Amino acid sequence: MSDNLPPQDLDLSFLYEIADGSDEFIVDSIGMFLTQTPELLDAITNAINAQDWATAASASHKLKPNLGFFGMPQSQAAIQEVEIMCKGGAPNPSEVKAKFAEVKSVVNTNLVALERIKQEKEANL
Q1: Under-70 pLDDT residues of the chain
Q2: I want to staple 83 with a disulfide (CB 3.0 to 4.6 A). Which of 2, 23, 46, 60 is the partner?
Q3: What is the reported pLDDT for 8?
Q4: Which helix (H) or strand (E) holds 79?
Q5: Residue 119 confidence (pLDDT)
Q6: How buried is 123 (Cβ within 10 angstroms: 0-12 exposed, 13-18 middle, 19+ buried)?
């Protein structure tokens, strides 16, 4: 893994701030992220494998704000790099795959952590 991405890039302080003590808001927000993010990761993976750069760029663009909202700034910056590479139209496929693999690994680790947090919060409802 690149030195640019920590093994876990997750800061939920913004989510907790806007939740204002509402575990239900946190559970619902994390639930949406847990639904949307794997779908977007799969779409990016499939597009990169098919060398469909427009779709890879579009799905990366959609994933970016989600990563920012959930306090993953390094992952957000890295997925922006993937988006920019794909927007160029004819990137080096191995370079795009390598950069995306880094992002996907960190995000998948965070999905596990978010699922645990969601379960803990649901137990309090």
Answers
A1: 1-8
A2: 60
A3: 61
A4: helix 73-87
A5: 94
A6: exposed
